[in-house]
């Protein structure tokens, strides 16, 4: 066989493989589009059922106002700037709490996974304190930090610390030991082991912990703002309940749900970028 014939045969043999790769990529993109559509369709379908039930007087609209009325109230609060102000204040507290609790959680969790002595020392403390309801320690937090901003930030930090630390430790422990052995063989420093082996290997678990922490952060910031704040979404919901402004109360609940949905979608996209091997699996 001549050289041109050999090149042609190789091109023909590789063409089906290229087509299979293209088909597989198209299938993944199509599946992602379907997932996005379903993610939006399910809550919209629930709102539609709620709207119809309210219009047909199947539910008491005094306690369950129809979504169209809630959206109207939300539009008014957006135009006045009241809702935006409360949202920005709550998001600021959540962000600061995530930084305060999340960064130490990653460092401690990965260190626990790498070092058996550290895990033996710290893990019992985490196991003992994790089951305590985080909302139950709010009076203690208020006693120490008062009614200022720090008490809300600390509540969020405590809430996000545990799921991130526990998942970071689990992520390191599931790394095949051979990778750590290779690092030791090449005399990698603790920082190099942390940076090049433990952190990348534990990233999928850390992202799971961050997602769980985001949900807890929204819950705890609402609870903290209901008790010791004069601003934020939790305060807005509580003040609406005190004045029986039911539609306004639902605006706060809807806003928290929308923020949670947005954070979840954002973290999913971040996960696809940062953890490409998992996203493509």
Structure description:
The chain is mainly α and 281 residues long. The protein folds into two domains: 1-59; 62-279, MetI-like fold, CATH 1.10.3720. It is 85% helix and 0% strand. The longest helix has 53 residues, at 3-55. The radius of gyration is 25 Å and the shape is globular. The chain starts with a helix and ends with a helix.
Which helices and strands occur, and which strands form pairs?
Layout lengths: L2 H53 L11 H14 L1 H33 L1 H14 L8 H8 L3 H25 L3 H9 L4 H39 L4 H10 L3 H29 L1 H4 L2
Helix pairs in contact: 2-10, 3-4, 3-6, 3-8, 3-9, 5-6, 6-8, 7-8, 8-9, 8-10, 9-10
What characteristics describe this protein?
281 residues, mainly alpha, 11 helices, globular, 0% strand, MetI-like fold, 85% helix, 2 domains
Report Rg.
Answer: 25 Å
CATH superfamily of the largest domain: MetI-like
Q: Considering DSSP H and I runs of 4 or more, what fraction of the residues is helical?
A: over 70%
Architecture of the largest domain, CATH level 2?
Orthogonal Bundle
CATH class of the largest domain: Mainly Alpha
Topology as a string of helices (H) and strands (E) = HHHHHHHHHHH
- Domains (count): 2
- What is the CATH topology of the largest domain? MetI-like fold
Characterize the overall form.
globular
Strand content: under 5%
What does the largest sheet look like? none
Spans of at least 5 consecutive residues with low confidence: none
Q: Averaged pLDDT, please?
A: 82
Number of helices, counting only DSSP H or I runs of 4 residues or more: 11
Number of strands: 0
Distance between the first and last residues' Cα: 40 Å
Assign the structural class, choosing from mainly alpha, mainly beta, alpha/beta, alpha+beta, or little secondary structure: mainly alpha
């Amino acid at each position: 066989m001549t050289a041109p014939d050999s090149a042609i045969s190789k091109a023909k043999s590789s063409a089906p493989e290229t087509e299979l790769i293209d088909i597989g990529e198209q299938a993944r993109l199509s599946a992602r589009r379907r997932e996005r559509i379903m993610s939006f369709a399910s809550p919209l379908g629930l709102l539609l059922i709620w709207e119809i039930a309210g219009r047909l007087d199947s539910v008491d609209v005094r306690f369950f106002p129809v979504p169209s009325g809630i959206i109207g109230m939300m539009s008014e609060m957006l135009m006045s700037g009241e809702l935006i102000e409360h949202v920005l204040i709550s998001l600021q507290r959540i962000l600061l709490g995530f930084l305060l609790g999340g960064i130490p959680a990653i460092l401690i969790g990965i260190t626990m996974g790498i070092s058996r002595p550290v895990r033996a020392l710290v893990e019992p403390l985490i196991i003992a304190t994790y089951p305590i309801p985080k909302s139950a320690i709010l009076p203690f937090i208020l006693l120490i930090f008062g009614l200022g901003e720090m008490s809300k930030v600390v509540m969020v930090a405590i809430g996000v610390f545990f799921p991130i630390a526990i998942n970071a430790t689990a992520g390191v422990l599931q790394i095949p030991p051979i990778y750590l052995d290779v690092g030791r063989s090449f005399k990698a420093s603790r920082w190099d082991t942390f940076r090049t082996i433990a952190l990348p290997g534990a990233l999928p678990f850390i992202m799971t912990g961050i997602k769980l922490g985001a949900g807890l952060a929204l819950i705890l910031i609402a609870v903290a703002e209901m008790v010791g704040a004069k601003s934020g979404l939790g305060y807005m919901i509580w003040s609406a309940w005190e004045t029986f402004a039911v539609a306004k109360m639902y605006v706060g609940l809807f806003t928290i749900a929308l923020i949670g949905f947005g954070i979840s979608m954002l973290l999913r996209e971040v996960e696809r970028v940062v953890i490409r091997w998992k996203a493509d699996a």
